[in-house]
Structure to design on (194 residues):
């Protein structure tokens, strides 16, 4: 069995090429991306949130699975890397790019609105290792919470494994059913049941 899909989203090749050219090595892999596209497709007309745009690889995968009535908000603190995503995907009206620290965005968004999301993909520390509760407050009933990079990666700093161990030890979380998987870069998928 392959660890990834049989298709690649529109513009993903050029996004990855530009990521390599600027030295960005933390893009979502094809196994994670294929799963994101599939799960996004399961939420027609859905509202999606990505914490950690990076250069937009995960964004491209989610857009590939989303229908025309769905909308994705993606948040990134580094304008330089998010500019790659904007250049390649900014013409898609289904996506809004937010330049903000994810922790600040989570706090201000949760306080300012009652919007909840049908799928939240977290590819940065806030919303996963920090401020998990804030991210989960934004998850709709039946919504999916997805994180990746739970298996050792070459890009990890030396002190990162304890963060992952602590995160995994927090599960199960009340009100959610979760499955950690040794798939792609290491994924946890959870859904809100109440």
């Amino acid at each position: 069995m392959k660890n990834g899909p049989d298709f690649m989203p529109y513009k993903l090749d050029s996004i990855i090429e530009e990521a390599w050219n600027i030295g960005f090595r933390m893009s979502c892999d094809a196994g994670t991306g294929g799963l994101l596209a599939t799960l996004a497709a399961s939420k027609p007309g859905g509202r999606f949130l990505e914490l950690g745009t990076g250069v937009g690889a995960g964004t491209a995968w989610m857009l590939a699975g989303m229908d025309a009535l769905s909308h994705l908000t993606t948040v990134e603190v580094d304008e330089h890397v998010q500019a790659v995503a904007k250049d390649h995907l900014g013409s898609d009206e289904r996506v809004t790019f937010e330049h903000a620290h994810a922790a600040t965005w989570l706090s201000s968004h949760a306080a300012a609105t009652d919007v909840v999301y049908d799928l939240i993909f977290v590819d940065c520390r806030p919303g996963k290792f920090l401020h998990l509760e804030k991210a989960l407050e934004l998850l709709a009933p039946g919504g999916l919470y997805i994180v990746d990079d739970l298996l050792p990666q070459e890009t990890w700093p030396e002190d990162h494994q304890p963060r992952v161990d602590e995160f995994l030890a927090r599960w199960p979380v009340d009100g959610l059913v979760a499955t950690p998987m040794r798939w792609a870069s290491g994924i946890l998928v959870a859904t809100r049941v109440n």
About this structure: Residues 11 and 88 are 7 Å apart (CA to CA). Residues 12-192 form a domain with the Rossmann fold fold (CATH 3.40.50.150).
